[in-house]
Write a structure and sequence with these properties.
The protein is built from nine helices and nine strands. It has a seven-stranded mixed sheet, sandwiched between helices. A two-stranded antiparallel ribbon has the order 3-4. Helix 5 links the parallel strand 6 and strand 7.
Amino acid sequence: DKVELLAIKRAKKLFALGDRWHVNVKALSAAIANFCVLNALLEPGQKIMAMHLMHGGHLSHGWDYQGKKVTIGARMFTTVRYQVDAKTQVFNYDEIEQMAKREKPQLIITGGTAYPRDINYKRMGESAKKTGAYYMADIAHEAGLIGAGVLSSPFKYADVVTMSTQKTLRGPRASIICCKKELGERIDRAIFPGLQGGPFDNNIAALAVALKEALSADFKTYATRVVKNA
């Protein structure tokens, strides 16, 4: 318990989260964390709106291809996907908002695998509010850069933020789920007993160490150089 609470405390400090936020560090990977969020917030058959896989999105946001439901998220929920603009190769937020109004999803997801631009979390959060959807920001690839303050942060605008911890956070194979406090019990129960058994305490201990490193001045210098080099 002490190790887990330490990891939670450091995650809150890294992302400047106040008392309105709840943090869970038990999900074994970001893909599992994402499915736990779907399981917590949605009923089977409800609609997810997420980034198209071929445009940089992620399998764990629900993917079907040529009539075949590839992932568990797609099998359990209805999925629709927004894309990058054909000419600019970046998001057209007006078009995404119009799609949200038309499709009326219960959950909108940002983030993915290969979208090499900062995301306008404010605009996506506004679109979710206008359509009555939850907004989940998956920052699996950007988490360390956001924690270091060199990319914009989704926490002011999202209901839930998920991340893997072995990428830009340079930690163990693990994940963090941050959610508004009122969703905390639902998220916790979706992980255990909903999907997993006991926690991997060794991973959580390693995560606590990685979060301590991420709070250092050296890490911020590293993250600044990553963005500069990119």
